[in-house]
Structures are given as structure tokens and as C-alpha cells.
Amino acid sequence: MHVAVVGAGISGLSAAWRLRRRLGPGVDITVLDQSGRLGGKLATGEVAGVRVEQGAESVLLRDPVVAELAAELGLGALAHPAPLPAGIVAAGATRPVPRGTLLGIPADPSILDSSGPARATPEPPGGPDPLLAPGADVSVGALVRPRYGDEVVDRLVDPLLGGVYAGRADDLSLAVTVPALHAAAQRETTLSAAVRAAQAATPKATGPMFGVPAAGMSALATALAAASGATTRLDAPVRELAPTPAGWRLTIGSTRDPGYLTADAVVLAVPARPAARLLTGFAPAAAAEVGVLDYASIALVTLVLPGDVLPASSGFLVPATEGYAVKAATFVGHKWPHLAAPGVSLARLSLGRYRETRVLQRDDADLAELARADLAAILGTRLPDPVGVRVQRWGGALPQYGPGHVDRIARARAGLAGYPTLALAGAGYDGVGIPVCIRSGFAAADRLAAVAPDPAAPAGVAHAGTAEPAEISTGE
Ligand SMILES: Cc1cc2nc3c(=O)[nH]c(=O)nc-3n(C[C@H](O)[C@H](O)[C@H](O)COP(=O)(O)OP(=O)(O)OC[C@H]3O[C@@H](n4cnc5c(N)ncnc54)[C@H](O)[C@@H]3O)c2cc1C
């Protein structure tokens, strides 16, 4: 059996690794990516000799899958952040992020006092019915705004959600971004009771909440690829995917000089738009459901500043209402002691919010200067000239899951039920967090493993898939 995995991000690589685990040495796996490197949004790099993460920075450890994988892949123990506070900029000052909330939504709104970034309005009494009808989905803002007031949404929930999705509380699906609250809101009649129930249903963290492989995020991608034993083909954009009587045919490369690859099964682990383009020829309804998903573009500016010039904090978040271009800052050496470099301070600044792309039209030098000016203004200090600057742009970076996303993806997958040798995986479908992407890759591999030929069966026995050998050709 030959499986083609399209997309060498964490989702595709996790699928490749799991396929090897499930099917053993008898499966051929080819991982294809249009870019020249593995990892997708996992990208460890260097600025002025200092290691930095230019994409995803860390992993939420509530799901142990990353720690388990890292140990299994020989990456050693994870590094953890220092227990330093983070702030939210509000009315010109940086205030502590209130503790004990669910993405900024407290069970008891009175805990939000004047020392924090936002005050809540008293919640109106609940009605006879639960907050949400069974299976209904709304935006996070639509649930919270009428119950706790605008300040809580604009100054607290919005920047916390924005730090993950670069999106706004009034646009993002409750079911995807705060699933425990979505479940509780279908049973409870007040927001405070729903938050209490959601928090009670969430297992308490017993150790550090976040971690990262000590060798960096890219190490996870390269180790997965190596352990999967897959053939990797980089600079290999897949332009067409077509079912054949025997399996699948992929068209790769430029229109002038295309190459072809046949496979018995395919994992499609690319973002929603390229996935929709590849699906549209044979599954237009599923393609339409997938292609609805929009993405936010962002840029990360890393500044290496001489001296110890940043406060002893892990960084800050900036609500859109504050008027800065920077939406989040990480003080890398403070937050991640294993990345601290002597004699310099590292600031990782994130710019770009959903539908606010104008700021990203600046050239790199301009963008870096804007980020530095915002940082200095927020800290209320002059900053030295950086000794190193890196601007990393991520066009179409972060999926903006609108209300109804979960149902749309369920419909898309149902629309592909007639193709049991095709599986979707990735952030465009199942969620943005790295553990979720890994699980999504695993689920895709499990779907294909379930229809793989039985290795114990005599050769030539019919199965879902094909006995045709994997074949790579160009210029057909
Ligand atoms: C700046 C940034 C910071 C983040 N920080 C965190 C964090 O700290 N923690 C966290 O959990 N998550 C974080 N995320 C989110 C997380 O990194 C992503 O959700 C996750 O890495 C997505 O993985 P993926 O494999 O689904 O997709 P991707 O990483 O997007 O991989 C998809 C791959 O498909 C390839 N591709 C696309 N089209 C084609 C085609 N036609 N043919 C061949 N290849 C194709 C692309 O080149 C890409 O390599 C962050 C994201 C960004 C952008």
C-alpha cells in the first residue's frame, strides 16, 4: 500500500508517523509539501545567533500527546516557561491577566476589579431555558457581551482569543474555541453557572501548562518525519487530486512541467483553501463546506535588543481598542529560560488581526520599526537600537472558525464518505492547537489504516485500495 500525505505540517507528519505505527514496514508513505522545508507553522530559526521560534512557540500540555511523542522520538524532556506573570494593556497601563477565568470569562464576574484590565456588569438573572439550544453555536462575543458587558469582551476575552487566533470574540465560534463552555451553555441558564460547570469539567493541571521541545519546535517535525520512514518531497506543490479506479492520482509541480504520483490512499493535511481546490473536481459539495473557512494573516517581529531592557514578565497582550499595531509581545528570554542569551533581551512581537491587513503591507524595515515604537510606548521607555531583527510573515496563518464550523466540517467529511481512502487532517478542520493537530493527523491515519489491506491476506486478495505499486513520473 502507498499513502500520499499532502502537507508536511505537524498534522501531515503526525499522520505519516501514525501510519507507520499502524501499518508497519509494509506501507510506503510519501509526504509532499509545496514549501522547501518540513513543519509548516513550526519553524525554529535564529536571529543574531540567538535561537527563536518563528512560528508556534509552545504547546498546551493538558493533552499529554506532545510530551509522550517527544519522549518516544528521543527529544528528551520538554522545556517549560518560567512562572512569570503576563499582562494586558488597558487604558494605557499594563495590568495583570486575571486568574481563574476561562479565556477571560470568569465564573464570578465580581472578581474583575479595578486592578485588572476590565470590569464586568452584573449578570442578568437566567431565564427558564439553557443559554444555548441543543447543538446551537454562537460567537464567543454573542454569549458574553449581553451578560458581562462590553469591557469584558473588548479588553479581556478579545485579547486572549486574539493571542491564539488573531481573531475577534464577535466572530469566533464558541464550540471550537471554548468547547467546554459550549457544552455547559446547553445545560445552564446563566453564564456564571456555565463557566463554573465548564471549569469543573476541565481536568486540573498537575504540572506546567505549557512546554516546548528543548531543541525547538522544528525538531518535533524533523523527528516525526524521520521516525515515519516516509519519503519526503519538498518544493512539491500538489495541484490536482483525482480518484482513479485503483486509488488516487496527484498532479505535482508547475503546469508547464507537471509530475504525477499514484497512491492507494491520501491524507490531505493542507489548509482549507488549498484543500478545497484539490477536492472541488470530484467532491464539490465537500469542497464548498471546507473552502468557507477564512484565515487571518499575521507577522512576527523578533527584536534582539542589547542589555537587560525588558521587564521581568513573560510579555503582554494588547486589545484592539488600545490602538496599537502590536497585538501581543513575548519577552522570550524571561519567559523561556532555556532560550535566554547573555547580554541581550529578546522581544517577539505579533502584528496583524483578522480583517486588518493594512499594517502588514509595510515593508519589513517599516514593520520592525513600528513594532519597536509600539513596544517602547507600551513600556513607557526608550529602547536601544536592536542588534538583530527578524520579520516572519505568515499569510493565511490562523483559521477563523465561525459559528457552525464543527457542523460544516462534519458535513464535509460526510460528503467524502464515498472515498474511504481519503482523509482530511489539520488545523483547518479540527482546531488550531498543536496537540489537536497531532490528534487530527492520528485520526486520519487510523481512518486509512482501517481500510488498508490485511497484511496476512494472500497476495491478490481484493481490498479497499489497490495493489498497483506506487509510481512517480514526470511530464506524463
Ligand atoms: C505565528 C503562529 C504562532 C502559533 N503559535 C502556536 C502555539 O504557540 N501553540 C500552538 O499550539 N499553536 C500555535 N499556532 C498554531 C499551530 O502552529 C498551527 O495550527 C499548526 O501548526 C497547523 O499545522 P497543520 O499541519 O495543520 O498546518 P500547516 O502547518 O499550515 O501545514 C500545512 C502544510 O501544507 C503545505 N501545503 C499547502 N498547500 C499545499 C499543496 N497544494 N501542496 C503541497 N503542500 C501544501 C504548506 O506548505 C504547509 O507546510 C501558531 C500559528 C502561527 C502561524
Automatic annotation (TrEMBL):
Gene Ontology, cellular component aspect: cytoplasm
Pathway(s) per entry: Porphyrin-containing compound metabolism; protoheme biosynthesis
The record's listing under Gene3D superfamilies reads: FAD/NAD(P)-binding domain, protoporphyrinogen ix oxidase, domain 3, Protoporphyrinogen oxidase, mitochondrial, domain 2
- Name the keywords, alphabetized: Cytoplasm, FAD, Flavoprotein, Heme biosynthesis, Oxidoreductase
The answer to whether keyword Cytoplasm applies is yes
Q: Which reaction does it catalyse?
A: coproporphyrinogen III + 3 O2 = coproporphyrin III + 3 H2O2
Q: Which InterPro entries match?
A: Amino_oxidase, FAD/NAD-bd_sf, Protoporphyrinogen_oxidase, Zeta_carotene_desat/Oxidored
Cofactor (UniProt): FAD
Coiled-coil segments: none
**A GO molecular-function descriptor:** oxygen-dependent protoporphyrinogen oxidase activity
Disordered: region residues: 111-131
- The Amine oxidase domain sits at 10-448
The subcellular location is: Cytoplasm
Q: What does this protein do?
A: Involved in coproporphyrin-dependent heme b biosynthesis. Catalyzes the oxidation of coproporphyrinogen III to coproporphyrin III.
User: Which named protein is this?
Assistant: Coproporphyrinogen III oxidase
